[in-house]
Specification:
Layout: H1 3-6, H2 13-27, H3 38-50, H4 60-79, E1 84-88, H5 95-98, E2 106-111, H6 113-123, E3 131-136, H7 142-153, E4 159-163, H8 172-183, E5 188-196, H9 198-206, H10 208-214, E6 235-242, H11 243-249, E7 274-281
Parallel strand pairs: 1-2, 1-4, 2-3, 4-5
Antiparallel strand pairs: 5-7, 6-7
Helix pairs in contact: 2-3, 2-4, 4-11, 7-8
Length: 286
């Protein structure tokens, strides 16, 4: 396989890359989560991508932290009463199959047709632990996504939205539009996102970001306001936890990065920060 074909071809390929790191974590004796489906989902392509992208096979600690934090935040939202999980750009996420979930919970995965078809092929014989549905949709299509949100608004009383690994590929204007659309639903309560500071965004653009940009998956979003970016659109930041701090808590952080701790308070413009944030809608009505 040539170098160009071995790398990322399109944005859907990044899901295989992420699954590769979940598979690595699962094999560790001190794994913080177990994903028995990750290796199958990553496939040979996931391994090739990780070993072709600049720094693509590094920073295992950060990918571990991201998955761990999204697991933690999603579980908390469900425990607090969410009756529907809307996973935007679900990629090759396997949480409906591997988390402890009530059978009555509704879980909606939204992604492009290609990634949904591949996932059905790999996991078709597996049984999810809740009521799982997949929707094939390009989330950049505003009218269609608003129609989906309107439909889901009628099906649940407390919705948690999960958008792991999505917003960084959107422009600030596109993120604002999505935030506004989600806030329009009175039953949308919590939105879980991962976020990069402007300083971290620049670092990522200089490494893996170069090849991803050529594949149409450029890194774009790292707002100087941090989670405060979402306030004008009806979302109030409630919690944020950084990848580096989380990795350090489990003795996984690289020693050369420990000097960056503790994290600064407030917006982290120049500080190289990435983490998971929990937002709550000011428009929510039970």
């Amino acid at each position: 396989m040539s170098e160009s074909r071995a790398g990322v071809r399109n944005i859907s390929d990044t899901a295989r890359w992420v699954a590769y790191f979940r598979a690595l974590e699962t094999k560790r004796p001190d794994a913080l989560f177990q994903d028995p489906f990750a290796e199958r989902l990553a496939g040979e392509r996931g391994v090739q991508i990780a070993n072709t992208l600049p720094d693509g096979n590094k920073h295992e600690w950060a990918w571990m932290a991201r998955t761990y934090l999204f697991d933690k935040f999603t579980s908390r939202a469900i425990e607090e009463g969410a009756d529907l999980v809307l996973n935007l750009a679900a990629g090759l996420d396997s949480r409906p199959y591997r988390m402890a979930l009530q059978p009555a919970l509704q879980w909606i995965e939204v992604d492009l047709p290609e990634i949904n078809s591949y996932k059905e092929e790999v996991l078709g014989s597996e049984k999810p632990r809740c009521r799982l549905e997949r929707v094939s949709l390009d989330l950049s299509d505003g009218p269609k996504r608003r129609a989906l949100f309107a439909d889901l608004h009628q099906r649940a009383k407390r919705i948690v939205v999960v958008s792991e690994g999505l917003l960084i590929y959107f422009s600030p204007e596109e993120v604002g539009s999505l935030a506004q659309d989600l806030a329009g639903g009175l039953h949308f309560h919590t939105w879980l996102i991962d976020l990069a500071s402007p300083g971290q965004l620049k670092l990522m653009q200089r490494t893996t970001g170069k090849e991803l940009s050529e594949a149409g998956a450029a890194y774009k979003f790292g707002p100087p306001e941090g989670p405060g970016f979402f306030k004008p659109y009806g979302w109030e930041p409630k919690d944020e936890q950084g990848f580096l701090k989380t990795a350090a808590e489990f003795h996984r952080a690289p020693s050369e990065l420990l000097s960056l701790l503790p994290e600064p308070k407030g917006p982290k413009v120049n500080y190289p920060w990435t983490g998971v944030c929990s937002l709550e809608s000011r428009n929510y009505r039970p």
